Amino acid sequence: MSILSPENLAVLEKQGIELPSWAFGNSGTRFKVFGTPGTPRDPWEKIADAAQVNQYTALAPAVALHIPWDVVDSYSDLRTYAEDLGVALGTVNSNTFQDDDYKFGALTHEDAAIRRKAIDHHLACIDVMDATGSRDLKIWLAEGSNYPGQADLRGRQDRLQDSLQKIYDRLGDDQRLVLEYKFFEPAFYHTDVPDWGTSYAQVSALGDKAMVCLDTGHHAPGTNIEFIVMQLLRLGKLGSFDFNSRFYADDDLIVGAADPFQLFRILFEVVRGGGLNNPDVAFMLDQCHNVEDKIPGQIRSVLNVQEMTARALLVDREALTAAQKSGDVLAANAVFMDAFYTDVRPALAEWRESRGLAADPMAAYLASGYPQKIAADRVGGVQAGWGA
Ligand code: PSV
Ligand code: MN
Ligand code: MN
Hints:
The chain has a single domain, classed as Divalent-metal-dependent TIM barrel enzymes (TIM Barrel), CATH 3.20.20.150. α2 (about 45-55) crosses α9 (about 295-315) and α8 packs across α9. It has 14 helices and ten strands. The strands form two sheets. It has an eight-stranded parallel β-sheet with strand order 1-2-3-4-6-8-9-10. The protein has a two-stranded antiparallel sheet with strand order 5-7. The chain is α/β, with parallel strands linked by helices. One manganese (II) ion (MN) binds near residues 140 and 242. Alpha-D-psicofuranose binds near residues 180, 182 and 215.
């Protein structure tokens, strides 16, 4: 008998993780961008590659777009193209960090004309969402200051609220705004949305259609991220995850690669807090593949999330609660660790086969001929966007 119960398999079957279009482009550090043969040359090819990930894993039913990195003439054509390949167009990410006008801020800028330009960009993103059928507008702001005294911290917070309100007011009934926080970078002294508390305060003032986006790589080292997950779920304001992993800063490495136990702890709080397969909580990746191939990198990522979700589902919640209530510290910890140390990979492979999928999605993709085909067909792949 499988170690995964029919109930747990039914939960896993519903899991969907949105892929970032930019994961399929070339990316790198400020030192060098290494190209990969077969890198997509346009948004259409990024979506075709994302569909491969879904084809072999049945885990990645949507692709997030980034505007203007993914600008096309017709978003409804792009939507049809994606749907024909079995994926939906997901979150639309705005970009106010690559324009000279935004050197000293966008939604927080002192100059009303620059704020207006940044607001209009977000309204244009919502137009894109109308055409793609996307629900979420994700806002990450590269705004802040480098030197004490450089900026009016309070004034910027007030202007941010005002700008966000104007964007929020344009959302359709079924659309949402998710505000992503990050504690540093590109600014180094202060950041205008540095933490979950600031994001929570800002989105709470907007209304029910505004939520917090938690990017796992956007916290100071040592932060207890699962506590934040618990708190945001408790408050009903966890709108989405950007999953990735990090050793040092915002490394954007494959989720679960740097600290699998942290991913387990996060997913346990998701399960415990009712966030799994909850339509209000979007699971997304936000990663870049600098040295590894992109499609296999995304396959590895979604499988990591699936494996760790399966382990989180294995926690014996009854035994855990009993140990917690009786103050049995070591028994409680043992129940938790037992699930973490359980290797679910053979059971997942067997289950995949029972659903007509390859037991080993990575091997199946590598044997499919697709990597060779795109390497031969595509010349001059694009950068992910950061260097663009
Ligand atoms: C920058 O840190 C960032 O990685 C944010 O996490 C966004 O989600 C992403 O870029 C795309 O704009
Ligand atoms: Mn992110
Ligand atoms: Mn980031």
